[in-house]
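This section describes the prediction task in plain terms. A model, or a person checking by hand, is given the sequence of a single protein chain and must write out its three-dimensional structure as a string of tokens. No templates, partner chains or ligands are provided. The sample shown here is typical of the held-out split.
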Amino acid sequence: MNETESLSINHRLSIPLSEIDLQAIRAQGAGGQNVNKVSSAIHLRFDINASSLPIAVKERLLQKKDSRLTKDGILIIKAQQFRTQEKNREDALERLAEVVREATIVQAARVATRPTRSSQRKRMDSKTRRGQVKSMRGKVDY
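The expected answer:
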């Protein structure tokens, strides 16, 4: 596939543009009279379950706590930062690529470790010293 038919995620992974639904909508916010007649914002919809992504990447995408992800597994990105539809389209595609790129990174499993005996001893000694200092602040009896 060449660059025009797919969205390149990294050197091994790309998404065919046929799997991405792009829709032009009217942008929100200020912009004068032009904002009411020109559909310059882009609504990008990407169905993760129906995509050609590897299963591991799909699972990581679906497990993300992202407000742009629906219960049905559809990622919705709204791009309206720029004045032109072309720039908003590029922005939406780049944001989709970034989300998928983050999902390709596998987190290393955390190995549980225990504190050393000397560090435990130091901690307990410092707590004892601190307690002694605080006990000296009490009321004085003559």
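For orientation: Residues 85-104 form the longest helix (20 residues).
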